[in-house]
Amino acid sequence: MFDLDDSGSISIDELAEAMEALDQHLTDDELHMLMVEADSDGNGTIDFDEFVKVIAHKMDMLTPEEEEDRRKLATEDDIREYVQSLPRRDLKIELTKRKEPVHGNKRALQKRLFVALNMQAQKSLAFDAMIRVRACGRVIAA
User: Fold this and answer.
1) pLDDT tens digit sequence for 78-118
2) How far apart are CA 38 and CA 53, in angstroms?
3) Phi then psi for 94, rounded to 5 degrees?
4) Is the pTM of this model over 0.85?
């Protein structure tokens, strides 16, 4: 997936692409610091175990309550039902937590929150898939 050259490890350039794909926009300095932090064996690249630790850290692993919410909002229908159940005030609170704009009518707020939650669910599913692939012992490659 992120090991673009099939080397079995991730270079700093591949790490930059991976973080962008996960909607984590880092400066060159932040990326370098992350690489140094993640490369626990000091070989200049990140192996899969090191990579999982980096992603977990950067995506701020969920609290138990957030994890339960993630499980409840596993499908688009679940997300849609949840969003439609919220009063306007709660929609604004949820959007503010996600640093999304809070202007517009209730329908616009619902649509914006639906998109944000759906994107969050997709990222979470992708991360879970990476973990499952690792558990199966398969190599992740492009």
Assistant:
1) 888 989 999 999 999 989 988 899 999 999 999 999 998 88
2) 7
3) -65, -40
4) no
Return all residues near 52 (Cβ < 8 A) that are at least 6 apart.
Answer: 130, 131, 134
Alpha carbons 98 and 116: distance in angstroms, whole number: 8
Structure tokens at 125: 């599913």
Alpha carbons within 13 A on the beta-carbon side of 64: 0
Q: Where are the domains of the chain?
A: 12-61, 64-127
* Angle, alpha carbons 69-38-140 (nearest 5°): 70
Q: Which helix (H) or strand (E) holds 98?
A: none
- Structure-token pair, residue 12: 């700093």
Helix (H, G, I), strand (E, B) or coil at 34: helix
22 to each of 34, 82, 141, how far by Cα in Å? 15, 24, 16
- Rounded distance between C-alpha atoms, residue 35 and residue 33, angstroms: 5
Question: What's CA 109's distance to the chain center, in Å?
Answer: 22
